[in-house]
Write a structure and sequence with these properties.
- This protein is mainly α.
- The chain has one domain.
- Helix content is 59%, strand content 1%.
- The chain has 14 helices and two strands, in the order αααααααααββααααα.
- The relative contact order is 0.14.
Length: 381
Amino acid sequence: MSVFSAKQHRLRDALPFWLSLAVVPLAVLAARWGGFAFMLLPVFAWWIVTFLDVLLGRNEDNPDPEASDRELFWYRLITLLWFPIQAGLIFGTIWYATRTPDLGAWEKIGLFFGIGVMSGTIGINYAHELMHQRNRFERWLGDLLLASVLYSHFRTEHLLVHHSWVGTPRDAVSARYNEGFHRFFYRVLRDCPRSAWRAEAARLSRADRRVTDPRNPFWRYGALQLAMLALALAVGGWQGLLLFVWQAFVAIWQLEVTNYIEHYGLTRKHLGDGRYERVLPRHSWNADHKATNWLLINLQRHADHHVKPDRRFPVLQTYHPDEAPQLPFGYPGMTIGAMIPPLWRRWMNPKVRAWRRLHYPEVTDWAPYNRAENPMPRNAP
């Protein structure tokens, strides 16, 4: 069913997608109270949102995909405001934590673990939305958000590699069948920065430019990340710098858990000679749980995002389970499972096998897919 009436363009109709603002008072309270108050942020992001998913159920309505940017203004506004909010929380908390005598070392580590959950769950997700848009201002906001977690290369890797080669051996963040998260996380940290550099080098080469060309975005990435590190050092000294790096690492971990969930075990069929079938809704795990989609601005409608990468989040479509496989829980609940590989395999491996039987009954040997041993796609950088 397709719905998106004119009255839904109002602020009050967009407000559920502003759920991220709930983390602002939680971060302030965590800093002020100390102790185990740092758990306020992860408990909200993982447990309370999962409970709300159970309570509120699913939203299977499809909005009108032709709604204009003007009509979607109130939905988009939260993504435009988030960088100054997040920067204020990160650097304001560094300033406070490095000056107050009320927080011990473990309390500061816990506090910035919570801040990292926030910047990974919300900040990188909003950066993902912004960097897919044509508007230069929005792309710059996305770059600033990624720099605030020291993961700027994600933009290149996501746009030039992931969307082109998802579900093939070229895409490092397509999690393999039976691959535990911890092994996946190490592999992604090792492979993605050089993969992104290689993709940019290939793009520049096609235009007869060298990697040293000013158009290489890695120069911008480096400058923005150095500026963030310098600001952390100026605000909080060496301790502030370490706390900033710690929250960035936690944010990256939170992002890569999401990447792990989104495509676990789902592969595109190899057609021979390095050719793969086109990307279809079946190559992404979907979830229609209301509260998580409010917090993550419809990221869980991931199949449609791969079908139409620049489609604004309020109008992403959902699919029948026969078209796009469905997760048993929203991303926060699945995050908890991903940390325990035996539990994850018990949840997800039967679902992957059922997906294979439904869509690819003709494939009899899945070993090359499981080990990413199929040929690299033709023309992949």
